[in-house]
């Protein structure tokens, strides 16, 4: 069974991370793994239609390959965060190599005049060293599972819509893998937030 909501006890174990935010009517949509031509464009068009803002945790090599798309994210009022240069798994490399990959992504942003809001580890995988030494780590409270081919779009919406409460940080992916589900669930989630008077904001 896919777990769409982070169990409530986990954030208390790692209080330095941002899992959700205090808010009366705002919700925080986030997109990992882009920017990806056509897919990120689709996301931006959907967000614009609903006057919504979001945060894009970008992979550095994708940002370097698609600078115009990165600039579009910025120019349309969304925030940008670091998702490593090459989507590294923190459990598979030593900390120095991981830190270098994070810094390489940051250098891509700096070259384009972009101020990163912080960092999200790929796969949500963290280590004790990361917890101690990497600041401004954003995780999430709701995971759509848009990348999971074993799910269907209807079931994703069935589980996720009731979880969209003020302060929630919700994860999508603007990637090729996630695109089939994303194209179905993102418009529905934006419409739901609009009906519930939830304002979609950037972190």
From TrEMBL:
InterPro entries attached to this UniProt entry: Glyco_hydro/deAcase_b/a-brl, NODB_dom, Polysacc_deacetylase_ArnD
Gene3D superfamilies recorded: Glycoside hydrolase/deacetylase
Keyword Cell inner membrane appears in the UniProt entry: no
Domain NodB homology: 25-198
Keywords, sorted A to Z: Hydrolase, Metal-binding
Record GO terms (molecular function): hydrolase activity
EC number(s) on file: 3.-.-.-
The keyword Magnesium appears for this protein: no
Enzyme class: hydrolase
PROSITE patterns assigned to the protein according to its UniProt record, in alphabetical order: NODB
Domain of life, per lineage: Bacteria
Name the UniProt record assigns to this protein: Polysaccharide deacetylase family protein
Native source organism of the sequence: Aquirufa novilacunae
